[in-house]
Amino acid sequence: SPAGMELALQPASPRAVPGGSGLFGWLRGRCLGRSAAVDPARDTFGAMTGLYGSIQPADSVYLSTRTHGAVFNLEYSPDGSVLTVACEQTEVLLFDPISSKHIKTLSEAHEDCVNNIRFLDNRLFATCSDDTTIALWDLRKLNTKVCTLHGHTSWVKNIEYDTNTRLLVTSGFDGNVIIWDTNRCTEDGCPHKKFFHTRFLMRMRLTPDCSKMLISTSSGYLLILHDLDLNKSLEVGSYPILRARRTASSS
């Protein structure tokens, strides 16, 4: 566990655990929704166990892989109304996650496999591909892309989005992390700049508050960029590079 943190499992006493004693009784009680604070005689306990007991697994969604190949990524829209699927054979699939209904297939979303999908809001989403491009899409008009973004020179593997600045962040096997200004998008693309470059780059992620960027490499390292400012660029030396810590990963 992380330094300074310790997780201890302390089972309740047998008297406090309905229907059993000791650790196994406590665990079974947890699975059934029981605790020392829940009295089995109360009406709420019966309602609660009935609710959880009625939950059944959903039927699997079966699609032939002859057209779309392997599934590389999944992404929900922020409001949960659409599930998007990135596929090996140039396709993006869209589903209604409630009914499991297949809504639409973007059969030629890219010219190579689709690696990642990221929603910008409830209607706009971005896809990236081994064809070195990023595409922006609008759920209201899926017959054509909003625009195609060119800037990477190799496979594009990751997309991140900062909702505060509306900046799109992508990384690829060319070692580049590129920033795209979606505030100024046109049919020809978005203004962009190279934010960072490192050899052997594999994947890039932003923390939920976008204060840090984490980069993994094929040489076994994690790069952590602290106090992140996406409006600056490491390429032009305006970013405090000494705040980046290179830490060897451990098994």
TrEMBL record:
Keywords noted in UniProt: Repeat, WD repeat
WD repeats: 107-140, 149-181
Domain of life: Eukaryota
Cross-referenced InterPro entries: DCA10, WD40/YVTN_repeat-like_dom_sf, WD40_repeat_dom_sf, WD40_rpt
Keyword Nucleotide-binding: no
GO CC annotation, single: Cul4-RING E3 ubiquitin ligase complex
Pfam families: WD40
Family: Belongs to the WD repeat DCAF10 family.
Purpose: May function as a substrate receptor for CUL4-DDB1 E3 ubiquitin-protein ligase complex.
Protein name: DDB1- and CUL4-associated factor 10
Gene name tied to this protein: Dcaf10
